[in-house]
Amino acid sequence: MKWETVIGLEIHAELDTKTKIFCDCPTAFGAAPNQHTCPVCMGLPGTLPVLNQAVVDMAVKAGLALGCEVQTVSKMDRKNYFYPDLPKAYQISQYDLPICTGGSVEIEVNGEKKTIRIHRIHIEEDAGKLIHDEYEPLSYIDYNRVGVPLIEIVSEADMRSPEEAVAYLRAVRAVLQYAGVSDCRMEQGSLRCDGNISLRPYGQEALNEKVELKNINSFKELQKALEKEEKRQMELYSFGEGHKVVQETRRWDAAKGRTISMRTKEDAHDYRYFPEPDLKPILIPEAAIEAARSTLPELPAAKAARFSEAYGLTPKEIAILTGEKALSRFFEETVAAGAGAKAAANWILGDLLRCLKETDIEAEDQPLQAVQLAKLIELVEAGTISGTVGKEVFQEMYDTGKDPEAIVEEKGLKQISGSGELAAIISQVLAANPASVEDYHSGKKQALGFLMGQVMKATGGQANPKMAKEMLEKALQA
Question: What EC designation does it have (predicted)?
């Protein structure tokens, strides 16, 4: 039997506010455990929540950026369940009247475009962070994250492969970054997702039991987790009626490469939702929605269309550059500083991305300045340094922050372009390799490549390649 994979994602994005959703505690990442807390976010008796207006404003902006319909009336609800990361034993969220509904994003996988629908976006408070140690009989809890404002973006079950799910997460992340509502730093947990996955026979309309994979905060791990769970469910179904997939929540153990059962998955009625009695309904006038719409910046799709028209880049280059707000900004700043678009794209998509991967740094934290890269490109194109040396200079720029001219001067990396100096070196190379000279004259053209390599070796890679080759060919013909 052939099986079809059905996937939906619930994306949790921390909104980029200075304070929490219902209190004045800061939301800054990196504080010592349990320092950014107060009686309100800890839910102590006698405290009352006060909704942060900035949370509503950012949720509206996110909804508009994702093509959703912003609701003029929504409300907050209590979602009741006990788990150690929720100190008051309930979460303030939204149930039947979310702030946004509908919407969609477009993805492309293996050259095929597809629209993934969004079911809803709702506001809620984040829970604390649990740190489990399987070798200790306890878990650690950091409550700093309790009360940090979230939007949860719930997709329809429109994805049919882990690759589509990753592409959708990337697309949503880019929109949120461009809209300026979340920094989406997955390594800090400000963008996480739960993956709901089930399998069904091809042609079957009804959905089978689904499994929720909880709190995944990396594109790579999302793909791995969905692939492993897909395989696990397929194996269960292949064993027959005695082995069935049960509706449950599982976590992804990246170290062991497997999903692990956490708890039976609850349905909505298990949470005993009811309207939050301490908060009034959220009323958003149409005029406020339109005012928010007018503040939307250029979004990824519009930027991609502009890049295609203005810079003549390939679709793949455009997709990578516009998929990260920081990359697209750095590219345009480099072009504005005088670099050619194609050259700027090549250096950013090649050397910069390589350095970011090797140093495990996000694009927004990269140390280069656009004017530095533009100057490096100018040095290479002017023939002051070779392309090979340019890569060496780039690495030094990335590691030290020094300007390219200073690096070239300090290390004596200027390209040898003087005809007299090159002629002398070429004469020495030809004298030292008479057999290769004879091979060249015998019609073995590969001898030219060997001799050119010897010239570059003799100059420490600093010979102007074009000039050296022309002079070498003339010397051989003479």
Answer: 6.3.5.-
SS3 of residue 449 by DSSP: helix
**Model confidence at 404: pLDDT above 80:** yes
Number of Cβ atoms within 10 Å of the Cβ of 194 = 17
CA-CA distance, 329 to 351, in Å (whole number)? 17
Question: What would the pLDDT profile of 32-83 be if each residue is shown by its tens digit?
Answer: 999 999 999 999 999 999 999 999 999 999 999 999 999 999 999 999 988 8
CB atoms within 10 A of CB 422: 21
Structure-token match 């001219």, residue found:
405
Rounded Cα gap, residues 350 and 331, in angstroms: 13
Fold of 419-477: Arc Repressor Mutant, subunit A (1.10.10)
CA distance 279 to 96: 15
Q: Per the confidence metrics, is the pTM higher than 0.85? A: yes
Q: Is the dihedral of CA 318, 322, 323, 326 positive or negative?
A: positive
Query: Is 179 buried (19+), middle (13-18) or exposed (0-12) by CB count in 10 A?
Result: buried
For residue 114 the two structure tokens come to: 């597809």
Q: Spell out the residues 6+ positions from residue 368 whose beta carbon is closer than 8 angstroms to its own.
A: 330, 352, 397, 398, 401
Q: Domain residue spans in the chain?
A: 3-291, 298-411, 419-477
Q: Using alpha carbons, select from 363, 268, 290 the residue that is nearest to residue 60.
A: 290
Structure tokens at 388: 């090979």
For residue 157, count CB atoms less than 10 angstroms from its CB and return exposed for 0-12, middle for 13-18, buried for 19 or more: middle
Interstrand relation of 149-155 and 139-142 (parallel, antiparallel or unpaired): unpaired
In three-state secondary structure terms, 96 is coil
Measured between alpha carbons, how far is 30 from 432 in angstroms, rounded to an integer? 63
Task: State how far the Cα of 215 lies from the Cα of 250, in Å rounded to an integer.
Answer: 10
pLDDT the model gives residue 77 = 97
